[in-house]
Amino acid sequence: MLEVGRLDDFPLWPVADVGPWLALSEALTAAEVGAAVARIAAYNHLDDRTVWPGDDPLTAVLPVVAADPEPGSLVVPGGLRLTDPATGARVDPGCCSGLEDWREWYEVPAGRSPDLGHDPDPWVERRPDGTVRVWADEEGSSWVDAHVDELMGLVNGVRADLAGFLRALRSWADDVVPAGADELVANLDRHLRVSEPGAPARP
Questions:
Q1: Domain ranges of the chain
Q2: pTM (2 decimals)?
Q3: Which of 128-132, 186-190, 194-198: highest mean pLDDT?
Q4: Is there a contact between 80 and 90 (Cβ–Cβ < 8 Å)?
Q5: Can you give the pLDDT at residue 48?
Q6: Are 81 and 104 in contact (CB under 8 A)?
Q7: For residues 82 and 77, what is the distance between their CA atoms, to the nearest angstrom?
Q8: How far is CA 98 from CA 1, 176, 186, 197, in A?
């Protein structure tokens, strides 16, 4: 999930009003992809007191296109959301977590917990029966359970969805910022680590 928030009066390309969260996938409309790009660019370059530079879309996406290749130099605010269809319980990413860290979920079988952000401080518990319990907050008010193999299948699904998002992004970029399309898609792919081969070996 990408944490989008509001993009009131955004001037440079059409953006959808998607609410606080947007699930990234190939199914996004062009306006939804536009909202995602605007949010990522703003998060990595702007603040509430800064206006968008001029009327050039390419200039607006330069924070994404020109981001340093070092891990952590580009933040994609959000993370993975888990939902229990039986109980309706849901665990959202915590504050300041980043979707670029989604591969940390592959380390859960080895007993390590991904960084889920803070406030309300969600966290992961590996249980002796092979179940992974993901707590929604520090107080333990609600949780989602999944067997570790099921969870790894879900993480593989995240990778497939992100690959689909990059395809939708390519189509959007060819229309809106054709001069920067290659760099935009390649840099987001690099920081989201979508095309990076393999996954951590299971213990």
A1: 2-75+165-192, 82-156
A2: 0.90
A3: 186-190
A4: no
A5: 46
A6: no
A7: 16
A8: 9, 25, 18, 20
- Angstrom CA distances, 202 to 105, 148, 156, stand at 12, 11, 14
Q: Which two tokens stand for residue 155?
A: 């993480």
Contacts of residue 125, Cβ cutoff 8 Å, sequence gap at least 6: 132, 133, 134, 135
State the Cα–Cα distance between residues 175 and 169, nearest whole angstrom.
10
Integer-rounded Cα Rg, in Å, for the chain is 17
Q: What is the pLDDT of residues 34-70, one digit of tens each?
A: 999 999 988 887 654 455 666 788 888 887 888 888 8
Contact criterion met (CB below 8 Å) for 182 and 45: no
Residue where the block lists tokens 């993901």: 134
Q: Which residue reads 């359970």 in tokens?
A: 145
Query: Three-class SS of residue 101?
Result: helix
- Residue closest to 109 by CA, chosen among 75, 72, 148: 148
* Phi, psi values for residue 100, rounded to 5°: -65, -15
Express each pLDDT in 111-134 by its tens digit: 888 989 888 889 999 888 889 999
Which of 6, 37, 70 shows the shortest CA–CA distance to 184?
A: 37
Write phi, then psi, for 121 (nearest 5 degrees).
65, 60
Residue 14's pLDDT band (boundaries 50, 70, 90)? very high
CA dihedral 121, 83, 104, 193 (to 10 degrees): -120
- The total of other beta-carbon atoms located within 10 Å of residue 88's CB is 8
